[in-house]
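Example (one chain per record):
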Amino acid sequence: MTDKAAARKSAFAARKAAFAAGQGQAAELLADVLAAHAGKRLAGYMAMRTEIDPTAAMAAHAGPVGVPVILGPGQALKFREWSPGCTMVPGEFGAAIPAEGAWIEPEVLIVPLLSFDARGYRLGYGGGFYDRTLEGLRARGPVLALGFAFDAQEVDEVPTEPTDQRLDAIVTESGIRRF
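Predicted structure:
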């Protein structure tokens, strides 16, 4: 088993336990962070399984909001405009996506993850979608990548590769950490 595969197995278990305990004040803290970015294009995500849920903060954002659409393996994500109550359909891997809407290029991304470390690295599901997306967006201009997770998802060190993109900050139920 590779380092990342072993780390993912452990991270899924830690996140599942944290999810069962509830997300506490995490959504309010995320909304507070996003308030400083009012008017900017935001990309969030639709929580699946035991992911911490950012939709309350996304709904409160003063500006356009999108959610990721997977176009295919090895490609960067695109983001379709989302609003509370819009018609959603199943996308790749079961993630809900808006049935229709404009494409937006985010300036701020809320990034899901399995685990994170104090250096700002995250462990995702292994498809590289967010790493490719962040690399492309950052090549075109400034982008803020905000991890959103439970405290229990922090690990000593996430196994990394040269293509892994660091987060700029992470929001958990206990606060905000900037990297």
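Caption: The two ends are 30 Å apart (CA to CA).
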